[in-house]
Specification:
single chain; about 120 residues; mainly alpha; 6 helices; about 55% helix; globular
Length: about 120
Amino acid sequence: MLAEFGDDPTRYASAKARKNYAGTSPITRASGKSHTVQARYVRNNRLADALQRQAFAALRASPGAHRYYDKQRAREAGYNPALRHLGNRLVGILHGCLKTRTHYDEATAWSQHAHTHAA
């Protein structure tokens, strides 16, 4: 993934710019009373494939990622959209790590999604 994003630390001004390049962020169009949200089709396909694999692997390795994925599925997102949401979140986490020059920390990355659902 890092090879696809490039090694220029100033190339992406924000996590949103990085997500747009990766093709994981949705396109929202609003006109008058209509509002649509669509998936991006113009993207770096190698990067998108790597992100989908990373998201899939994160389901087994990261409890926080698995909770986030489960939350997306509970909102009735299908398998691929839920993985895309997870990949999008992982890109944001990567951007934060690169910007602050810190290592990935499970507790920090998923702290806002750490609450458990009451039965």
